[in-house]
Amino acid sequence: MSKLAINGGEKVRTKPFPSWPMWDEAERNALIEVLESGQWGLNNSNVAEFEEKYADYVGVKHSIAVTSGTMALVIALIAADVGVGDEVIIPPYTFTATAGAVVMMNAIPVFADIDPSTYNLDPGEMEKVITDRTKAVIPVHVAGGPADMDGIMKVARKHKLMVIEDACQAHAAEWRGKKVGSIGDIGCFSFQASKNLCAGEGGIITTNDDKLASTCWSYHNCGRVKGGARYEQRGLGANFRMTAWQAAILLAQMTKLEEQTEIRNRNGIYLSKKLAEIEGIEPARRDAEVTKHAYHLYMFKYDSEKFGGQPRASFLEALTAEGIPCSRGYHPLYKQDFFKTPIQRPDGSQVDYSKLYLPVVEKVCNEEAVWLKQSMLLGSQEDMDDIVNAVRKIKENFAG
Ligand SMILES: Cc1ncc(COP(=O)(O)O)c(C=O)c1O
User: Fold this and answer.
1) Is 97 in the pocket of ligand 1 (CB under 6 A)?
2) How confident is the model at residue 338, as a pLDDT?
3) For ligand 1, what atom is nearest to the CA of residue 97?
4) pTM for the whole thing?
5) Strand 174-175 to strand 178-179: parallel, antiparallel, or no bridges (unpaired)?
6) Does the C-beta of 219 come closer than 6 Å to ligand 1?
7) Segment 75-106, tens digit of pLDDT
């Protein structure tokens, strides 16, 4: 048995994995073009061109480019008419912004537990928490793996709920051949630096609904009317417009997205096959309906019992020492500090999250989940073998 690197043995891997973001002359030239055009604002056509290309790519009629994924969610909630006291169902296994956007609307996030194998919102759990105050649901395609959109849409339509897809981690992902962001009423994406399509910051809203699109467009552009005069502001809004610089980068990055997604899918499927052979490791389930995964993260479950009773923290430390960067990922979102104070309903009653305990997400967060970053999946098959070999080596050492 070879000695673990954490105990002074040789590392499985000494080379770094591919870093992120990736760029070349295309991004450099696109930025210089904006600079030298002198058209740095609304007179530059990059944003409109990117919006058109992205809408086509996702397969929707409209897209509105904004400053971030968080603002995409906020503006989508405004368009969905979510306001004070309205309930919005969200999964507790997501980035803080999914809940933050709801709280910013003075609305009430209602958490429904996740599926234990995909870590995405469980449609059965979602249905259990619907009340007559529920206005919308935000399924999150966590780690770039599409949520069960058949189940979620069925429950949502039955109860007349608006569906806002949080696709911030799921560019290019597909559920039964349809791109995420085109299945619900509105889709929201982020282009923050870590994302599979990125410009440092940025976001976009996608929809097929003319009225929702028009409200989103107006809100993100100071309350203006599309096609109207510059000072024809009719509604409330602010400046949440994407810049020409971001759009320049995104137009260049988009030409690489399909090829990168193919590589991530090839490596992700290979890695799952190999890791599943190790007792005590269970890759996150990829449903048969997932025709393309974004693999923004690669997630698997660690079962400490099968690893000699060693806790996940020891596994993460040992794996990192072997040259495989990894992390534990999220805490249940309702444990965030901003949920420590109960939320007030308009009728004076309070929503107290302090006693909320959703068993699946608690176990996933506290004991099981292990995350690898998307850019690691842009490496070669040998890079994937290094990951598998490191996990095997730890298993041998831990389980004896
Ligand atoms: C699931 C999810 N929702 C929302 C966001 C918010 O996006 P942004 O950071 O662009 O505001 C992110 C990104 O970090 C995310 O991962």
Assistant:
1) yes
2) 87
3) 4
4) 0.98
5) antiparallel
6) no
7) 999 999 999 999 999 999 999 999 999 999 99
